[in-house]
Amino acid sequence: MAQPASLDLQRAADGVLQVRLAGDWLLANPLPATAPVLEQIRGATPPTRVEFEAAGLGRWDTALPTALVAIRRAAEAAGVPVSDQQLPPGAQRLLRLAFAVKERADARRALVHRSLAEQIGQASLGIWAALVDLVSFIGICAQSLGRMARGKATYQRSDLLVAIQEAGAESLPIVSLISFLIGMIFAFVGVRQLEQFGAGIYVADLVAVAMVREMAPIMTAIIMAGRTGAAYAAGLGTMKVNEEIDALSSMGVDPIDFLVLPRLVALIVMLPLLALYGSLLGILGGAAVSLVMLDVSFVQYVAQTADSMQLSSLLGGLFKSFVYGSLVALAGCQQGMACGDSAMAVGQATTRAVVMGIVLIIVSAAVLTVIYITLDI
Amino acid sequence: MRGAALGDHITVSRLTMAYGDFLIQKDLDFSVRRGEVFIVMGGSGCGKTTLLKHLIGLKEPVSGDVLYGGRSFWTATDQEREQAKRQFGVLFQGGALWSSMTLAENVALPLRLYTTLADAEVRDITAYKLSLVGLAGFEQYYPSELSGGMRKRAGLARAMALDPEILYFDEPSSGLDPLSARLLDELILELRDSLGTTVVVVSHELASIFAIGDRAVFLDAEAKTQLAVGDPRVLRDSSPDPRVRNFLSRGEADGTA
After folding, report:
1. Considering chain A, what is the average pLDDT of its residues?
2. How many other C-beta atoms lie within 10 A of the C-beta of residue A50?
């Protein structure tokens, strides 16, 4: 049966503070507070020295040295000497060990509380800094693309091919599914509305124009932001944490050329192709719905679709997906290369890459649409 | 104070380890006594760290068992095994601190999970454990702000959080300069002496092996089993197996390198 732990204070006439420890000092049991000792030490008339008395001390674990360290730390701060002669030898050694390394004066940090205004200000500055980083990263990548065009960039062709495969062929299943379903959804909406005017066949125009000009580029870009942009940020971020990027730099290889360039080119080349493929699947999805719900034949539907298509719509859509592809790849690579050096930072970089990618897609979509309308494309 | 009672604390019994079909080590048979510093040594790739993973319950043996205080670890139920795991602390090679938490939070997490201590007590204990490893005042630092040696020592503070009976160290001196490595060795001995903790160290640093090891087991990658168990100094001078003498004398025993 454990004896309750106790701590008694006695102030001798010569100013010596006697701390009498007794009972079993075990974490599992309730422990006496050290606060009275600390108050004495920090009080207006601090003791000349602190002495421990441990004759009645039973079993002990971490609980005892924890209390002793707290008392001695306070005593040191107040310049009061502590005598540990009476303590059990094990506790003396632990105490000596705990104070073997002097606390570095500049180590301790105060927790800083920031006001709401300051937090908002810091966040705004953070957004501005992120924009500046992105723009300068675009510049660095443009230089790298220039070196590639002149054949002076150092990268492995196999890396480029793997990146193309990952961004292209391996994305086909999810792009197929989403595009087909988007085409079907458009056709459902269109059929309901246009049938009221007896213009059901124009569903073909609606689906084709919407898919080719807007939906396929945006949907494939968002899919790729979540799929490939995130993979770029996580992959490059982990390489940064493992110092793999430093290893490349130390060999005189520009990590932008070697790591970012293949990824950037792969996504810029593959996204327009994926969008084109997505448009086709969307049109097929629309056709499937129209054939069931409307009284049209497949040939009629195809002819109507072909009629509605203009080269400018197709090129406009392709240009959009080219822009989105660049933005998604840039956001992913930039966040990956700017990643901090811990496991947490990789997660944060990935999150930021996806959020940034999607925001950039939508903002540029809005801007491009206005430009297209103004130019009457 | 925990008595440094003699007797076998950890017993490895006919343990065979493999990754799939790839055999790592077979028929390991040795025991670690209570309160001693036991070294698991051997060349690179011989399965030292794999053995550690079997001892701490991260990897299941193909056959054989590990016994803690005579109780089987691997034939026990999952719940019993989780209980058994609380009696040991592990210092991983790189410290393995959780990077999203400060040092104080790292050390406090096991205390918060497995004890009912009040916040103030947890804070005091955390400060004490960090000062034991020479990191007083670094409570609010994140692991990424520290040097490798400091991270290792913080990992040790976390491993000691629950006052474990057994401390496992995976390559404590790797990545440390000789001076820091020696300080860590001294810290290990000091903790063993004052707390009576059983210490198991995976290492191939000869200086450290001779400085702190009471006994050792030597694993060989080619024989795929243990070649010797005993005091490393005695093994160096008079092991019947030339491979053991060779390793412990840096290849100078038989004039072969």
Report:
1. 89
2. 23
